[in-house]
């Protein structure tokens, strides 16, 4: 059976707009996916001359920026002048009128706005950058070592090297936050030095690989003008790195292996689950039900938490160490653990799922789906729906069908 991704590529080559619209909007297929030839759905649409499909993909946020590898390739391969003009129109090429990936958009917004930032970097050229210490520690061994060592507790860091310019430092932060890099070729050497300094070997390797590819492309096609290098994000790697913050926030007794070297990642929000006879918790004390998190992540990903923590009618109080504290009477301990894991890593983690039988696991997923609906976390709700698909049987299919319609989950309903 053909996969949704393969179907998207085939539909773009054929110009089947209705099928592409269904795959993108109903099946949640990644729009900027690449095949074995490093080609995207937009490239095939341009190559085959499907103007309406090209416009649709651009409006949905397909990557195609001028002076980049993807942008120049689409322009070079476009079948018609109208498509070429459409791609060169900056108002279209840079459009992101619909950002479909809420997690990527959240990280991009966190980077661009600096909301909730707790450290400021001052460069020699006078430029300043706001950042979040927890995220830098999760993504870079260099920042983890320094913010838990010589920079511990500091909210301002001066970068004294005149060889580090603002463009390169901004590109480094962009990579740490979003996994994406956009850097002018004349600043590439500076960014490579920064990647080496901050122990980001993967970033350095990918930049060198892309530079080598561009050199070969310009030799083969002298008329192609590329001034900017763009690296698409490896979101799987970003999620793996940020899982570190979820582990640091989670009470030790809930982790598969207790961490003896736990370090402080500067939490500023404590979420406490209500105790329940249904919760399988090894320790009954209050601390065992508390998750030390970060408001930038928790409130940034959920309007429910933003209102519960920051509004004038908030029930949140303050702990002795100045951390905001919120009791959640609507969640069990296990559900809160899954919510925290999702907030940081965008992944579905059911606490002790391996220890549950099929009926208990099914019930746990249903309860978490209801919690996700209450907490305004549609992404977590969709992940729960995907897990339910693997547990359908003759006894529960009617209940799941009703639930999918109630919660507006067309993929589960299908």
From TrEMBL:
GO cellular component, one term: cytoplasm
Domain BTB, residue spans: 117-185, 267-352
Record keywords, A-Z: ANK repeat, Repeat
Coiled coil: none
PROSITE patterns: BTB (PS50097)
Keyword Repeat: yes
Protein name in UniProt: Ankyrin repeat and BTB/POZ domain-containing protein 1
Organism: Macrostomum lignano
